[in-house]
């Protein structure tokens, strides 16, 4: 046997083994990138939906109701006789519309939180509880107002910007850190 044959017999399996290890490492990197990019995308969606929910919450409790939000259906216009009745119904329609938009945002956020809880554990749900409670508080108040159970004015509602920002802070911090990794 000559030296060339010995080197060839040794080098071929060695090169194949090294290629196998290299390929395995690359597949692991690719798998990690896929997992990371999915988690990164979810964290980004949760942050976006959290901020959209915050905005919907702030708008829902806003005391200003523009005329465009106080639209009445044709049937309502015909059924209501006085300006006061029309104004009251317009305010109720605006509150209902705001409540519906807010409800949609929070429902989508809640779905994303459940998805995140599957990936990162129950601490995600714990972080979002205070923020979701603010929505529940707003919902109960506005529902009572819409049913006219003794609340005179939706403008009396008091969730402050500070409460909203304080409830939002843990969610924002947690998911911003997920985005930075």
Question: What does this entry look like structurally?
Answer:
This protein is mainly α and 181 residues long. Helix content is 81%, strand content 0%. It is built from five helices and no strands. The longest helix has 58 residues, at 3-60. It is rod-shaped and about 110 Å long.
Count of helical stretches:
5
Percentage of β-strand residues: under 5%
Measured distance between first and last alpha carbons: 55 Å
Q: Specify Rg, calculated over alpha carbons.
A: 28 Å
Helix content: over 70%
Main traits of this protein?
81% helix, 181 residues, mainly alpha
Write the layout of secondary structure elements.
Layout: H1 3-60, H2 74-79, H3 83-120, H4 123-147, H5 161-180
Helix pairs in contact: 1-3, 1-5, 3-4, 4-5
Short description:
By secondary structure, the protein is mostly helical.
């Amino acid at each position: 046997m000559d030296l060339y044959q010995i080197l060839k017999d040794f080098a071929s399996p060695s090169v194949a083994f090294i290629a196998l290890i290299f390929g395995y490492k690359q597949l692991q990197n690719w798998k990690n990138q896929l997992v990371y990019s999915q988690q990164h995308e979810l964290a980004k969606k949760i942050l976006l939906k959290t901020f959209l929910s915050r905005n919907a919450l702030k708008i829902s409790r806003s005391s200003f109701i523009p005329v465009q939000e106080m639209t009445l259906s044709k049937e309502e216009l015909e059924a209501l006789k006085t300006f006061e009745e029309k104004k009251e119904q317009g305010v109720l329609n605006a509150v209902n519309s705001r409540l519906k938009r807010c409800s949609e945002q929070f429902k989508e956020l809640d779905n994303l939180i459940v998805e995140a809880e599957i990936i990162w554990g129950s601490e995600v749900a714990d972080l979002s509880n205070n923020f979701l409670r603010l929505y529940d508080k707003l919902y109960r108040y506005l529902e009572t107002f819409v049913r006219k159970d003794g609340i005179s004015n939706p403008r009396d509602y008091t969730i402050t910007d500070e409460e909203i920002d304080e409830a939002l802070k843990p969610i924002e911090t947690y998911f911003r850190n997920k985005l930075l990794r």
